[in-house]
Amino acid sequence: MSRLLRSLLFVPGNNQRFLEKAKTLSADIVCFDLEDSVPLEEKKSARNLIKEALEKRSDYKAEIYVRTNSPISGMVGDDLVAVVQKGIDGIVIPKVNNVNEVRKIERMLATLERKRKLKPIELMASIESSEGVVNAYSIASSSKRISALVFGVFDLLNDLGVEYTKRAEGAKYARAKIPIDARAAGKYALDAIWQDLNDAAGLEQDCSLAKSLGYAGKTIIHPNQIQAVHGIFYPTNYEIGWAKKVINAYESAKKTKKGATKVEGKMIDEVHFKRAKALLESVSST
Fold first, then answer.
1. Among residues 115, 202, 232, 245, which one has the fewest Cβ atoms lying within 10 Å of its Cβ?
2. pLDDT band (50, 70, 90) for residue 70
3. CB neighbours of 20 closer than 8 A, spacing ≥ 6?
4. Is-contact 245 264, C-beta < 8 A?
5. What confidence tier does 236 reach under pLDDT thresholds 50, 70, 90?
6. Cα separation, 240 vs 242, whole angstroms
7. Cα angle vertex 211, ends 207, 215, to 5°?
C-alpha cells in the first residue's frame, strides 16, 4: 500500500470561487462537497457547478473526488447522475452504516458507468455512526471499489449524544478501530477534520496522534491546513521504495507496449504510475 493520501480537502460545491481556487491547491485530493456544506435549496445548483468543474479536470493539480449526500438522504441517485462523468477520480459516501448501502450505490454507479462508457470509479466510505463503526470492516471489504474509510467524528458524537471537545473522549474507541478495520481489509484510513482553524499547534498534535493510530492522512476544511498535514503524513521509506518499483515496472511495460503489468503479484496500470510519480515528487519537493 503506497499512495499519497495525506490530505483530502473538502470544497463546498455551491461556491464558484472556491471551486476555481481549488485548481491550484496542493492537497492530494480535492473533494467537491454536495453534503454538509451545501444547503438543501442549493443542491441542484451545486451539482451543476461541480459538473462544469469536472469538465475542466485538466486544470486541477489534485485528484478530484465528490462527496455525495448520505445514503438515507434519498439524494444520492441525483448526485451520481450529475457527477459521474469523465474527470472524476472518486466518490466519498458520507454516513455509511452498513454493506447494503454500499452495494445499492455500487449498482447505481455501475449502471451509469456502463451507459457512459467510463472506467470503474473509486469509493471512500465515511464512518459516522455507531452502526457504521461496528460494521467498519465489513464495509471496507465489501467492494473492490472502496479504497479507504474516512472517520467522521462530529456525526458519530451526535449519534452517541456526546458533546464535541478537541479531545473527543467519546470517539476514542471508534477512532482507533477504523484504521485497524481498514488495514485488515487492505484499505487506507483518513482521519476526521480538525475544526479550529486558529489552533495550528492543536492540528499538528492531532495529526501526529492520527498517524500513530495508523491513518494515512487527514480530511481538512481549509487550504491553510495542507502544509501542516503534509508535514506530519510524510511518505514512509516503504512507500517511497514501492513507488520507485511501480514507476520502473510501468515504464518497462510501456516500452513493450503493455498497458498494465505486475509488481510483486499486484496489477498496476497508468493510475498507479501517476500516483507513484506524485508521491516521489512530494518527497523531492521537501
1. 115
2. very high
3. none
4. yes
5. confident
6. 5
7. 105
What share of the chain in percent tops pLDDT 90?
A: 79
| Alpha carbon of residue 182 to chain centroid | 13
- What's the CA gap between 267 and 250, in Å, rounded? 10
Beta strands in the chain (DSSP E): 7-12, 29-33, 63-67, 90-93, 122-127, 146-151, 188-191, 217-220, 261-263, 266-268
In the three-class reduction of DSSP (H, G, I as helix; E, B as strand; rest coil), residue 60 is classed as coil
CATH 3.20.20.60 spans which residues of the chain? 7-234
Q: Spell 128-146 as b/e; 16+ CB within 10 A means b.
A: bbeebbbbbbebbbbbebb
pLDDT at 189 over 90: yes
What is the C-alpha separation between 68 and 65, in angstroms, rounded? 10
209-223 as b/e, with b when 16 or more CB fall inside 10 Å?
Answer: ebbebebbbbbbbeb
CA atoms of 253 and 4, how far apart (whole Å) = 23
Place of cell 479550529: 196
Burial class (CB in 10 A: 0-12, 13-18, 19+), 39: exposed
Cell match 469509493: residue? Answer: 123
Is the pLDDT at 259 greater than 80, yes or no?
Answer: no
Here the contacts of 103-111 (C-beta below 8 Å, separation 24 or greater) are 103/142, 103/143, 104/71, 105/68, 105/71, 105/76, 105/80, 106/143, 106/145, 108/76, 108/77, 108/80, 109/80, 109/84, 109/145
The residue whose grid cell reads 467524528 is: 153
CATH number belonging to the domain at 7-234, selected among 3.20.20.60, 1.10.357.10, 3.30.565.10, 3.20.20.370: 3.20.20.60
Beta carbons of 59 and 49 less than 8 angstroms apart: no
